[in-house]
Each structure stands twice: as C-alpha cells, then as structure tokens.
Give the backbone structure.
Amino acid sequence: MVQKRRGADQWSGPRSTRGVVGSDRPVREGLNIRGCLPWIMKTVLIGVGQAGGKLTRALVEFDSRMGFGAVLGSLAVNSAKTDLQPLSMDTVLIGQARVKGHGVGGDNELGAEVMQADATEVMGSLDGRITAEAEAIVVVAGLGGGTGSGGAPVLCQELRRVYDVPVYALGILPGRNEGAMYQVNAGRSLKTLTREADSVLLVDNDAFRSSGESLEEGFDAVNEAIARRVGLLFASGEAVEGVGESVVDSSEVINTLRGGGISALGYAAAEAAPDAEENINIVTSITRRALLTGSSLPDATEADSALLVIAGRPDAIPRKGVERARRWVEEQTGSLQVRGGDFPLDSDRLAALLLLGGVERSDRIETFMERARESIDQADAEREDPSEQWANDDLDDLL
C-alpha cells in the first residue's frame, strides 16, 4: 500500500477504461497497439523545468492516446511562468520571490534554492493526490538547464522523505553542442540525482536527434521517442486472464531498478510473422537492436540487472526466442539478474523493451562526466556578469 509517512491522503485520478483502442496517428517506428490493460504500473509524473514539463506532457498524451491508464496524474513545476502556460496539466510556479516568474537563467544552484524555498508549496499541490494505486513517482527533468537540473534532486529528496513508494528520476542529458554551462549543470545534477532518487532513467539527447532537424524539431522527436518507450514500460505490468505466467508484472520493473544508480531503456520493433516459430529470429534481432542501437543511453551495455519485455500478440511470441534473447542479454550485460516476460498486445508487430539497471560504469557515462569536468572553466566564463565586458582595459574608448 502506498502511504504518506504523515497521514494517508488519496488522489482519485483518472482510471483506465477497458476496450480503449490505440492511436490513429502514425508514430515513427512504433507499434500499432490495441488492448485493455487493467493491471499496469500506476505512476504519478512531476515535470520540473521547461524540458521536464514538455516531456511529461508527451508522456501523458501517449498514455491517453494508447488508452493504457498508467499515468494516475501529472504536475508541472517551473520558475518561468511562460513555460507553464502551454501545458495542459496542473502547474506550480516556484521562485516568485527571487525571480518574479522569469526563470533562473540556467543557474542550477539558484534552481535548487528556489525549489528548497518553495518545496512546501509543491508538496502541498501533491497532498491528497497520490492514492494506494500509485506504485511509483517519476520526476522528469532536463539536466542541462537551471530549474530542472537544480530543482529535480531537491524534489526527489523531499518526495522520498514523505512517501513510501519508489521515486524515480527521468533525466535528459544535453547534447554535445549545447554549451559548456549545460554540460556542467548536467554533471552536477546527475551526480546529485543518483543519490537522491531510487533510480535515474537517463536519456541522451544525441541518441535521438537526427541530422538536418531544427533544435525544436529535435526536441520534439526526442520527446516522442522517449514517451513511447517509457509509456510502454509503465504499461507492461499487465495481468491478462488466460495468457499464462510469463506476463510481466510491475514488480519486475521495480526489482530491476532496486539497486539504484543509473538506468537505461532500449527499444526496437519489427513486423511479426503469423506463426510464433517464424518469429524466433525476429525476437532475437529486435533484442539486439534494443541494446546496441536503440538504447536511451548509447554504449551502455554493462549492467547490474535487466528486464527484457517482448510486446505483441501472445500467439506470435515464441517462447524459445524469448529465452534465447534473454540469455544473450545475460552474456552482453554480464548480469545474472536478467528478468524476462511478455506484454500481450493486439498488434501486427513485435517490440523489445530492454530496461537496464546499474549502468553507471558504462563508457558513455564516464565520457560525459569527463566532458562536464572539462567544461567547468568555460562555463564559469559563460556565467560572467555581462557588465564586466565594459571594464576591459584591452579596448580603447571610441571617444
């Protein structure tokens, strides 16, 4: 049962409805899904900062469009009033006493301070909104900016102090070309988040950006891709009568992330053959792609634990193929804790979702943290007071 340590308040969020069909909107590399999911992983989403709010909106829209009902409710928190206005969810504006609704300007120390100052207001907005149905709280944030990268660790700390459910962070790493300040912000935020959250599901912006896309198009594509992956993961804990014992339960997700640290999520899909035996090679192929080319954190293949979920029609999922793919994941990750199961969906495609727990030893993380350390001096220069440029003795006055 989900309880607050200071009393049991409840939030009666929207319930999933049986028989809701999937989306008519084309989704890049997505599944054409129809199904009813009465026992999914119920989550409450809290988006912090501009990127966190937008990704939370994408997650809510995906869950609603697919009819999963995994998202019990959502909240967006920001120090910039204009970033909250386009979001169709409950919002909380923080830092009004310090920044007057204009944001923290990329200063994540200030972002942490305003979240600490207004934590009571944010927690008050959650009072009575988290029910015994909720199995996890997910704090969503871009790690390169100010409010998200500074405020998310503070909020995770407060949520873990109050609630007896896992508090996960869904963090977005800035791209390599997003400036030194963003790299340093993300490095400091990630280091703190891994301590304050039960697990940090990390997303590398560069893994999803396509060449030729504008910055806005790139962010939209990232949000769409991550919403699909994470949304399917939350919805994969279904119990369907008559399907069998191999269906994934939400406890499998929680157990995979129990070790804490940093986690990653891979995804790949392909057309399914009519007969299950013909899909053995397809299952192994999409599992390889999910780990090697479809991960939210490229090159993160060494893990402490893993969960492999194969989604599709039950009669199209080959038992032999799933077991073969699971053994391959064991070999590639070096983990002896590789769980596996099915996500029954009425679809003409098969998809592999691969959740990796404890990937902080990966080369990608080490490379990023080194880049963040190297960017410290440059970031300090970027943060210099603009007025100091007028006191430059190397430049002569015109008059």
Notes: The two ends are 74 Å apart (CA to CA). The first strand starts at residue 43 and ends at 48. The chain has a mean pLDDT of 83.
